[in-house]
Amino acid sequence: MAPKTKYSKEDIILAAFDIAKKDGLDAITIRRIAKQLGSSIAPIYVNFKDIDELVQEVVNHTLEIVKQLIIEQNSGHPFRDIGIASIKFAKQYSVLYRDLIMKNNPHMRHNEENMMFVVQQMQKDPVLAGFSEQELMDILLKMEIFQTGLAVMVANGLLPEYFTEEKMIEMLDNVAEDMIISTQSRKGKG
């Protein structure tokens, strides 16, 4: 008899992630993961107490991918890199983007750790020097509202064909510049 194959927690998370990126978070089931792994359901229950815990780990894995996309941009302008990474994520992982951003997902509440990661990236941007943490969070929220609309259009294929990734990045740059200038202007008046 052949020895039993063991599956690590990471193996299970990656199998669930593969399902989610193709068919969405709701498609993750214990049986479907077992089938993807070519195993029984036992290794999944050994590593996770329930499906919600596993789905949260898939979301956490996805957030790590987003962070990596931000870091990979490395343009010298971290605020810009955040916007570009968002567009790239929406394009590469459109099903997950829709599940995580466009739905009221209990696994994707704005959590302090993720927000602080983004604000820390913004603090490295020379264009944003002199803004308080609260001002950066306000700029981030405004930009996120615009960027989400653009990324929704990307994820759902709603933009005209001529609207290239370069055009999207140019638009992000223009809107970000407008938001920064208006925040600086209000700050000067205050």
UniProtKB/TrEMBL annotation:
<protein>
    <submittedName>
        <fullName>TetR family transcriptional regulator</fullName>
    </submittedName>
</protein>
<feature type="domain" description="HTH tetR-type">
    <location>
        <begin position="6"/>
        <end position="66"/>
    </location>
</feature>
<dbReference type="Pfam" id="PF00440">
    <property type="entry name" value="TetR_N"/>
</dbReference>
<keyword id="KW-0238">DNA-binding</keyword>
<feature type="DNA-binding region" description="H-T-H motif">
    <location>
        <begin position="29"/>
        <end position="48"/>
    </location>
</feature>
<dbReference type="InterPro" id="IPR009057">
    <property type="entry name" value="Homeodomain-like_sf"/>
</dbReference>
<dbReference type="GO" id="GO:0003677">
    <property type="term" value="F:DNA binding"/>
</dbReference>
<dbReference type="InterPro" id="IPR001647">
    <property type="entry name" value="HTH_TetR"/>
</dbReference>
